[in-house]
Specification:
The complex is a heterodimer of chains A (170) and B (145).
Chain A lengths: L2 H28 L1 H35 L2 H8 L4 H14 L8 H9 L4 H10 L7 H8 L1 H27 L2
Chain B lengths: L4 H39 L3 H4 L4 H14 L4 H13 L4 H13 L5 H8 L1 H28 L1
Helix pairs in contact in B: 3-5, 3-7, 4-5, 5-7, 6-7
Classes of the chains: A mainly alpha (170), B mainly alpha (145).
Amino acid sequence: MNKLPDKKKINGVTKFLIVVLITYLIVALFNFSIAQKAFVDFLLMFIKIIPILVFVFILMTIINFYFTPEKIKKHLGENSGIKGWIYTMFSGIIISGHPYVFFPLLKDLKEHGMKDSLLAVFLYSKNIKIPFLPVMVYYFGLSFTIVLTIYTAIFSVLNGIIVEWLIKRR
Amino acid sequence: MELTKNKKVSLKKAILKTIQSFRISIPIIIGVLLLVNLINIYAKDYYLSLFTGNLMLDSFIGALAGSISLGIPLTSYVIGGELLKEGISLIAITAFILSWTTVGIAMLPLEIKFMGKRFALIRNTVNFIFAIIISILVILTLSIL
């Protein structure tokens, strides 16, 4: 029963990839070096995210294996309480990687019962990048880095509250 | 520690479910990254010409420029640092580096696909407004300190 929608999804994705490749071909026809540079940049970026994708794959498999929807609902669902918010914010800060890499994982967690507010908190708190903080200090100073980090942490919680409120509001 | 037959079946199911998710998400990630890197080549030389010198307008422009850009946050710090040297206001740069990671116009189709249209649109809109609010608050706080 599920095979037809899956096939449709894959076809859509393939079409999207073909359009992207045609765009590259058109750019290459006019200016080969730009297409080449963009492709090399893409390769470097993709190589960088491979370890994170592997980590996400393992994490998703663990979640699919160990965590039932009931367990997820308990820790990250409607009645998860303040612990749910704290777990989520720290997970977002500690787990490195661009938010888009985590969309498949978050979709799984959502299907298992994780509430929208915590999904938003996780994605927003990813803006606090501990390994990159020294670079921010170098460019913008220590005071700026501390103030911005504190505001980002506070606003990640506000973000969760507002996003969920807006989603529920019809 | 040996897995029981039931556990082995469950593990196999868990792996297959993850593979199924990846089978759809990896080609989209590849396509979007290819597209973004192509756009970035054309966009990155134009950042400086975007700003006007008006603080409020520049924070909006900064947030907008960050929203359409994509890459590791380190890149936004480097571009932000260069813009600061060129005399662009810190309020605009703060909005720029904040929206760089919190708002993803390029990644919107991917987010919609996985998280749903309503969630993705609301989250990105709220994040865009937050980038401007936080940039104002950061500068106000720094001026008090």
